Amino acid sequence: MTDSMVVEIGLQAMLLAVKLAGPILAVTLGLGLTIGLVQSVTQLQEPTLTFVPKFLGAGAVLLLGGAWMLREAIGFTEALFDLVPTLLA
């Protein structure tokens, strides 16, 4: 196993983490900004008002994209297992 192989595997793992976390983070960021703006305009500062929509939004993203996320993670894991013989040589 060379240093470049380790770096390549690490890079692929980080890219997979960004691909899987990106949609959830984007939705919760958008909801947080929207609700924060509404709270600023209405001067209603209720902490649960921000938590519940973000929680529901993240759940919706997982329901809609969970199968894709799981396929991506399984594909990465299978690719790593396929690399094991070449890494040991």
Concise account of the structure shown:
The chain contains 2 helices and no strands. It has 89 residues and is an all-alpha fold.
User: If you average the pLDDT, what whole number results?
Assistant: 92
General form: elongated
Q: In terms of per-residue confidence, which ranges show pLDDT below 50 for 5 or more consecutive residues? A: none
Number of helices: 2
Tell me the number of structural domains.
1
SSE succession: HH
Radius of gyration: 19 Å
Roughly how many Å apart are the termini? 7 Å
The fraction of residues assigned to DSSP E strands is under 5%
**Share in helix:** over 70%
Query: Based on helices, strands and strand pairing, what is the structural class?
Result: mainly alpha
Structure summary, number of beta strands: 0
The main sheet comes to: none
Transmembrane segments: 20-39, 51-70
Organism: Actinomarinicola tropica
Family: Belongs to the FliQ/MopD/SpaQ family.
GO cellular component, one term: plasma membrane
